[in-house]
Automatic annotation (TrEMBL):
GO BP terms, alphabetized: negative regulation of DNA-templated transcription
Top-level lineage group: Bacteria
PANTHER family (UniProt xref): HTH-TYPE TRANSCRIPTIONAL REGULATOR RUTR, TRANSCRIPTIONAL REGULATORY PROTEIN
Species assigned in the record: Nocardioides pocheonensis
Matches recorded under InterPro entries: Homeodomain-like_sf, HTH-type_TetR-like_transc_reg, HTH_TetR, Repressor_TetR_C, Tet_transcr_reg_TetR-rel_C_sf
HTH tetR-type domain mapped to chain residues: 29-89
Keyword Protease (UniProt): no
Name of the molecule in the record: TetR/AcrR family transcriptional regulator
Portion annotated as DNA-binding: 52-71
Transcription as UniProt keyword: yes
Membrane-spanning parts: none
Signal sequence residues: none
Lineage summary: Bacteria, Bacillati, Actinomycetota, Actinomycetes, Propionibacteriales
Length: 238
């Protein structure tokens, strides 16, 4: 084991399978994966604010202090939760070109985020380092580098695609209540002076603000994704 590995938190080492479970003595009563799984279930049902070490311990039938042997802080717990919620990355269609594969990647990520909506609320102090998260990065980087992008440009491009998917999901969740945006166009028509806001008025009359339903992937998501990939393709050709 390298010196860098020994400096990793225990929870990270266990997620990566680097802990020594072959030592003598009783097997651990819990695992980071089990703790993260229970925390994900709690967040899915009751929201992120409901996830405390005490609540997770109660769900597992253990004491709060016993959890700290596996997860030393809430930040570590959040990292493990996000990794558990993302799960393994999608198996991209090898017959598709790099653009098709990145489209699949972005759609799959958005679906996972919609399945576990609290993930877009998580704020961690350090970049993600869980094995599932890194596996998603590997798949995304590999697809983008097929375009001819250098590794650093592929990393920047995937960060933009990831940010777009998260932003779209965040907005979709923000206005997820039935009828949340239904009255907005009529309200705008009652307020807008076309002479003062000619551009907004033109967009309003085009029907762009009408509720297009809540199916995913939405037309807006696909439109924005195409724009992003057009830009990435031009970068790869330059």
């Amino acid at each position: 084991m390298t010196e860098e590995t020994t400096e990793l938190p225990r929870s990270v080492r266990e997620l990566w399978g680097l802990t020594d479970h072959g030592r003598r003595g009783p097997k651990p009563a819990m695992s980071v994966q089990a703790i993260a799984g229970a925390a994900v279930e709690l967040a899915d049902s009751d929201g992120l604010d409901a996830v405390t070490m005490a609540a997770v311990a109660k769900r597992l039938g253990f004491t709060t202090m016993s959890l700290y042997r596996y997860v030393e802080s809430r930040q570590e717990l959040l990292m493990a939760m996000v990794d558990e919620a993302l799960g393994p990355p999608p198996a991209l269609n090898r017959r598709r070109g790099w653009r098709g594969q990145v489209e699949e990647w972005a759609r799959a990520e958005a679906v996972q985020l919609l399945t576990h909506p609290w993930v877009v609320e998580v704020r961690t102090a350090t970049p993600p380092i869980g094995p599932h998260t890194i596996a998603w990065m590997e798949v995304g980087f590999a697809a983008l580098m097929k375009s001819g992008l250098a590794p650093d440009k592929a990393a920047s491009s995937l960060l933009i695609v990831d940010g777009y998917a998260r932003s779209h999901v965040r907005l979709a969740l923000q206005y997820a209540a039935p009828g949340a945006t239904e009255a907005w166009p009529a309200q705008l028509r009652a307020l807008l002076d076309p002479a003062r806001f000619p551009a907004v008025h033109a967009v309003l009359e085009s029907g762009a603000f009408e509720d297009g339903g809540d199916d995913f992937p939405s037309e807006e998501f696909e439109f924005g994704l195409r724009l992003l990939l057009e830009g990435i393709e031009r970068l790869a050709r330059s």
